[in-house]
């Protein structure tokens, strides 16, 4: 793959006239580098996109037409940090549990995940008593997040667990909603 990229860069360099090498690389090889950056060549694409932030450039195409492009903004973002890790075992290929999900979230039996509020331990001296009380509460994750968290844990954590003096015991059943109701209405 690297040989193909270097051959393409050499071919482009010989075809263009009176152009800065950096402008040549960014203008001609942008689609090539966009496909490469997802294949562990992130440092190369970052350097090229930094070179691209020089403003409008003028170069000749293969048919000797002069075109002007504005290369100040890259077409796609380079790296977007995400936490959607789904791990698989090497032997059987089954899904593994992501341990940080178990420390940050808690699954109720009817399928929803709950979490604590962010910033509940930070700068408490600046927060009022009512705000500190609100920060101690748990909040629901939405349906998309719950589906993703279900993918990130194994079947063991999806089934019901019984703990001694479980503070979440009254919340595992959801009788007020008709889909999750177990007991009939009186």
Distance between the termini: 70 Å
**Which CATH first-tier class of the domain at 99-171 would you pick?**
Few Secondary Structures
Helix content: 25-40%
Summarize the biggest pleated sheet: 3 strands, antiparallel
- Class from secondary-structure proportions: alpha+beta
Integer-rounded radius of gyration: 27 Å
Number of helices: 7
How do the SSEs run, as a string of H and E?
HHHHEEEEHEEHEH
Q: Flag low-confidence runs.
A: 17-22, 24-28, 35-40
Which strand-content bin applies to the residues?
5-15%
- Overall, the morphology is elongated
Mean pLDDT: 76
Family: Belongs to the bacterial ribosomal protein bL35 family.
GO molecular function, one term: structural constituent of ribosome
Keywords: Mitochondrion, Ribonucleoprotein, Ribosomal protein, Transit peptide
GO biological process, one term: translation
Give the arrangement of secondary structure elements:
Elements: H1 2-15, H2 21-28, H3 30-36, H4 42-51, E1 56-60, E2 66-70, E3 87-88, E4 95-96, H5 99-104, E5 105-107, E6 113-116, H6 129-135, E7 138-140, H7 143-151
């Amino acid at each position: 793959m690297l040989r193909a990229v270097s051959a393409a860069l050499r071919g482009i360099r010989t075809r263009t006239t009176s152009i800065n090498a950096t402008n040549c690389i960014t203008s001609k090889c942008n689609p090539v580098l966009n496909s490469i950056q997802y294949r562990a060549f992130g440092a190369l694409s970052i350097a090229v996109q930094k070179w691209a932030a020089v403003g409008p450039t003028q170069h000749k195409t293969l048919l000797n037409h002069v075109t002007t492009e504005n290369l100040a903004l890259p077409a796609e973002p380079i790296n977007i940090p995400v936490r959607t890790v789904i791990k698989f075992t090497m032997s059987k290929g089954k899904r593994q549990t992501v341990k940080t999900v178990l420390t940050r979230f808690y699954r109720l039996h009817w399928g929803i995940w709950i979490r604590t509020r962010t910033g509940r331990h930070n700068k408490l001296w600046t927060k009022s008593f009512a705000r500190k009380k609100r920060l101690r509460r748990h909040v629901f994750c939405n349906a998309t997040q719950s589906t993703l968290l279900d993918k990130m844990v194994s079947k063991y954590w999806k089934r019901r667990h019984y703990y001694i003096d479980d503070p979440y015991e009254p919340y595992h059943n959801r009788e007020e909603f008709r889909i999750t109701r177990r007991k009939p209405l009186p």
